[in-house]
UniProtKB/TrEMBL annotation:
The lineage of its organism: Bacteria, Pseudomonadati, Pseudomonadota, Alphaproteobacteria, Rhodospirillales. This is 3-methyladenine DNA glycosylase. GO terms for biological process: base-excision repair. Coiled coil: none annotated. One of its GO terms (molecular function) is DNA-3-methyladenine glycosylase activity. It comes from Inquilinus limosus. SUPFAM superfamilies: DNA-glycosylase.
Length: 231
């Protein structure tokens, strides 16, 4: 496994200098646990929904319709969405304010129930997410996959990053860098690969004081030319 300091130097060289790299990393959007815990659960459900609908659609389409989504789903109030009736679901399938995808519409109700369960168990869903240790990020991904709806893989990762939770995302550039650094031998395909990534990120985080998102972006920016590796 390689030395993160060398990866940082390589990323800085690719980006045009350390100052440029640090400015890019300052835009990661990571939040403190206290900031995440203070997030209303309706905003947690909204971000889940945004990421679920982004999958398979151009993000600009979802962004352009987002005010309609907010209105159609009553501001993503978890209790209101959890009680979505069959008639209301059918009406949403005809609602031009949103992207009319039946399974994804149903995921809003399912994930609202998931968040209500977390709130009952932990005080709020946001508190549960905030308190989960970054050193077991892959464990949190498993929770999202098993207890949430359509929150597996890339969608769950991007949801976590979207709420400010430090998160690594194995994009093509990140995977290429991890292979170069001896963490992986191929694109990740199972729990063993994700365990290896978690261990590498944990070690690099302990050594550098940087969070998972920063390290993920550093790895990505160490690949290719300027303008690439933005994940």
């Amino acid at each position: 496994m390689g030395d993160l300091a060398k990866v940082i130097a390589l990323a800085a060289e690719r980006r045009g200098g350390m100052d440029v790299l640090e400015r890019a990393l300052a835009e990661t959007g990571s939040k403190t646990p206290a900031e995440i815990a203070a997030t209303p659960d309706d905003r947690i459900l909204a971000e889940m929904t945004r990421r679920i609908f982004n999958a398979g659609f151009a993000s600009k389409v979802i962004t352009a319709k987002w005010e309609g989504f907010e209105a159609a789903f009553d501001g993503f109030d978890p209790r209101r969405c959890a009680a979505l009736s069959e008639e209301e679901s059918d009406a949403l399938l005809q609602d031009s304010r949103i992207v009319r995808h039946g399974a994804k519409i149903q995921s809003v109700a399912a994930n609202a129930r998931f968040l209500l369960d977390l709130a009952a168990e932990h005080g709020s869903a946001a508190r549960f997410l905030a308190d989960w240790p970054d050193a077991d990020y892959v464990g949190l991904l498993e929770v999202l996959k098993k207890r949430g709806n359509r929150l597996g893989g890339d969608t769950g990762m991007r949801f976590l990053r979207g709420i400010g939770k430090p998160a690594f995302i194995p994009t093509g550039d990140v995977v290429a860098a991890l292979i170069r650094e001896g963490v992986l031998t191929k694109p990740p395909g199972g729990k063993g690969d994700f365990k290896a990534m978690q261990q590498a990120f944990n070690r690099w985080s302990e050594e550098s004081g940087r969070d998972l998102t920063e390290i993920s972006r550093i790895l990505a920016m160490s690949i290719g030319n300027v303008g690439h590796g933005r994940r």
